[in-house]
Amino acid sequence: MNSQDRYICQHAFENDAGHHGAVTPPVYQTSIFTFPDLETFSRAQMKERQHFIYSRGLNPGVQLVERKLAALERGEACKAFGSGMGAIAATLFSLLRQGDHVLRINQTYGPTVELLDQLGAYGVEHDGISGTADIEAALRPSTRIIYVESPSSLLMELADLEAIAQLARARGIITVIDNTWATPLFQKPLEHGFDLVIHSLSKYIGGHSDVVGGAVIGSAEMIDRLFAIGHQLLGAALAPQNAALVLRGLRTLPLRMSEHQRNALRVVDFLAEQPQVLEVLHPSLAVGSAADWAQKQLDGHSGLLSLHIQQPTYHRIVSFIDALRLFRIGVSWGGYESLVVSPMRPDGSGQPLIRLAIGLEDIDDILADLTRGLTALNH
Ligand SMILES: *Cc1c(COP(=O)(O)O)cnc(C)c1O
């Protein structure tokens, strides 16, 4: 793990002298900030993204989180949001116009697809391909955004970020990536030429399953625009208390990510050897060109993975999941706790796979629990 990143998570941009040496910055639980004279107020209003005026715009704790995230992604600027979907909605609304097309690469987070479907009412079209498909052939003259998930958060697919960025730049297309799976510690898409990076802070960055938040990182120019249109007008602001929770999460992000990685790699090795398991999906197992992309782009592997069991009926998926005691059934991921879900539904619809979020518990406890699930498949 990069020592510069560790410093950014823990110490960078802190100003304890400004608040009596307090190591934890105070939470500015205020909606408004007042000014000594009208001139100062008016000048602040001309640069709303940089000044504390109203907490729908900016708040000191939120700004600290934004500075750290921008630095971690090696971007010029960051805007934080009240949720990952707030960040995604702001990005799409501020960049898209009637007649535009969005090309999605790899399986896109479900609510993002639903939002793009909604944008159909405003004349925006979208479709999706896999990262291994011929991307150039899927572009249209009206393509305005290429929206990527790599690794994606259910099938763990990869895409060639540098090739996509080059292709897009030559055509004036904006590249956006949802980097939630990898966190800025394990992947820095701006360094591969991407324009905007989105995170759900509700996952590893918050890290304790007690906060919902989002962020977008990019050039100052793009973030200014996103702020003016997507943030100020759609209003999905990160609350001061929630920013404090995200900040606390950032302090230990490097430590937690190494441990998530260590546990996940052990689980991947273990599952790959089990006769009841047909296939494990995790970027550490990528083969062919995907393995080259992983090598080039990923500095580590997070703890989210999926598996296909033999004869994946709904009944068997239920048997596996309901036999687990340590793993809890729930959406999301990124906290200390191991979680399990399946997108498969009782009527047989949905993908017949099991998704595991490997937490920070003792690895022997995790493997013993998975053995319970696998044993249940034998009955
Ligand atoms: C959770 C998630 C989101 C949405 O973030 P919220 O904070 O829940 O709104 C977007 N993308 C991915 C990959 C996610 O896992």
From TrEMBL:
Keywords from the named record: Lyase, Pyridoxal phosphate
TM region positions: none
Superkingdom per UniProt: Bacteria
Protein name: Cystathionine beta-lyase
Required co-factors: pyridoxal 5'-phosphate
Organism: Halomonas cupida
Lineage, highest ranks first: Bacteria, Pseudomonadati, Pseudomonadota, Gammaproteobacteria, Oceanospirillales
An annotated Gene Ontology molecular function: carbon-sulfur lyase activity
Keyword Amino-acid biosynthesis: no
PANTHER family the UniProt entry points to: CYSTATHIONINE GAMMA-LYASE, TRANS-SULFURATION ENZYME FAMILY MEMBER
Family per record: Belongs to the trans-sulfuration enzymes family.
Keyword 4Fe-4S belongs to the record: no
GO annotation, biological process: transsulfuration
CDD domains the UniProt entry points to: CGS_like
Modified residues (N6-(pyridoxal phosphate)lysine): 203
A Gene Ontology cellular-component term: cytoplasm
Pfam families: Cys_Met_Meta_PP
